[in-house]
Amino acid sequence: MTSTSQATHHGTAYRAAHAARLAAAEHQPQWMLELREQAMARFEAVGFPTARRGNEPWKYTDASPIAEATFGTPPTAGPEPLTVALKPFALPCARVHEIVFIDGRYTPQMSSVPGDTEPLPAGTFERHASGLVVGRLAEAIHRELPQVRAHLSKHAGMDANAFTALNTAFIEDGAFVWIPDDAVVTEPIYLLFIGTGKGDAYVTHPRVLVVAGKHSKASVIVSHEHLGDGGYFSNAVTEAVLGPGAHLGLWRLQRESARAFHVATTQATLGRDSTLTSASAELGGKLARHDFNVTLAEQGASCRVNGVYVTDGTRHVDTHTFIDHAVPRTTSNEVFKGILSGDSRGVFVGNVLVRPDAQRSEAHQLNKNLLLSSGAHVDTQPRLEIFADDVQCTHGAAVGSLDDAALFYLKSRGIGEGLARVLLTHGFMREVIESITDEAVRQHLDTAVEATLPHD
Amino acid sequence: MLLEVRDLRASINGVEILKGIDLTVRAGEAHAVMGPNGSGKSTLAYVLAGHPNYEVTGGRVTFDGRDLLAMSTEERARASVFLSFQHPIEIPGVRMDHFLRAGYNELRKAHGEAELDPLKFDRLLRTKVKVVEMNTNMTKRSVNEGFSGGEKKRNEILQMAVMEPKLAILDEVDSGLDVDALRTVSSGINSLRTPDNAIIVVTHYQRLLNYIVPDHVHVLADGRIAASGGKELALKVEAEGYDWLAEANAPSR
After folding, report:
1. What is the rounded distance in angstroms from the CA atom of residue A395 to the CA atom of residue A384?
2. What is the mean pLDDT of residues A163-179?
3. Do B102 and A419 touch (CB under 8 A)?
4. Per DSSP, what are the bridge partners of residue A311?
């Protein structure tokens, strides 16, 4: 079969790149080498999900443009790391823990600690007064920090996800965040991945591991931004682990180039009585896919998983969520809103699994889509599998255009067609933005989303 | 002459609702348009405001010397025509104060005036909310979302207070109001009246006209003005209902 031979061919290309990376990489512990090898083998066995039959998770999104292309190393991979102007990406707050990656590569001279104007020395960790550790994942692996060994690749499954396997095989740079037990971090932790877009055919594998200790509190934003208009491929994985009673805000901004491919998995695993509050904004990419998986692993765990996606032109943006109520007394709330214009396509598939044991659980899901043009298209599918009987579950999905009555109301107050449409479109996704509990992140995402909305 | 309506005809989905309306409104006047359900009262209000669902099939409307029917909805608002909605629209996610400032600044731009920044507009809004005894906090909420019937009507009059229209068309501003709210809303409307502006009050009941005293009362029936008179005409409607209209207008046999 053609698809098999292609998968094998490109599997070989990735295998060669993998071998080259391993040879060049700094010393790594044996378990890491084994993990990489295992991941590479897994990727080779599974291949990209290009089959058009019996391929439910990729039913609405064709991965073949990614599978058929050959991606090399970033053009900026020379010995001297690049520096870029960070101003366009700045969070609107004075104090922030900021770790910057250019084309997947850690740039210590651009990373900073609150209250410290000096850049972070290469290869060191930021250790905040609260005990917070923010730093380079490769360094954490090199030092064999027990939190890394215990959690890296233990949450984001590779078995069914070739992209996660590929990312894991290529773990090199990336961010590691460890919020120790009882630590309360008030400043946002900003993990910024910037694609330079210099040249087309290169791939990066951003990886993030966040370990939140028991009763800790922190807010982490993972951003995928771009500079140039390149057609690069960004293949990201974020794992977050919440200990008992932890409160974690986990925010995501995806604003890749309009010619870029972006595939990402975010996997959060929640311990007893922990709370995850999250929102994602999918604003860029020619072909973008985000899988947001939450495992409510212990009793009392609760999550809010919100998001917006804005598409235009011929872009294709796919969001899949999977909320696993594994045990009793777990809660999930989900609101996703899509704004689609031009000839773009959006996909939202919301999986909720309430396992037989998960009595007295609550799951609520809502997906609303606003189609601003006749050429735009959205596929929305709630998939609820409920095996417990003492549960409260609701779901809803809606697709519509701007409300004519509301348009008339605004116009009757002197507001012209163009501004009226902007106000209504902005208002449509306001609910998601308002749910962001970190003030700086809320402003940042609001500005980013507003800039992406169609203006006449 | 502020508003001159001549032989206005309009239909919706091919059904003629207004069958030749004549109405003259001068500055400083208050007009009441009454009539049974389905007589075309609300249609008249919508057509004057430029609702896109209605097709004007005949007649002309001159407002302040301009051809009103040639103007878009937003141009009419900028030219100082205001419609208070019978059923104000809820707009989730759009804050009242943002919405009001956007509209207010469009009006200012249309008159060649500089836009107000959020701070200055906020100051203006603080004085305007007093007209309808509304709490400033309400203006931070989404437009009409979760507002009670009375709050929605107060909100319409707050918008009127901000826009300061030359002509305000108030469509069933009394519906869904209890006596206290009716008093507040009508005294708000009365406080906004000047010798330079005019109001058209569209209502089913005479009750409202105890609070907003009209100079002229028109009774609509089947898309035409069946009777016009002073405020005593409203009392006749109150006492006798609308049945006498059919008899008065029945073709003589």
Report:
1. 8
2. 93
3. yes
4. A340
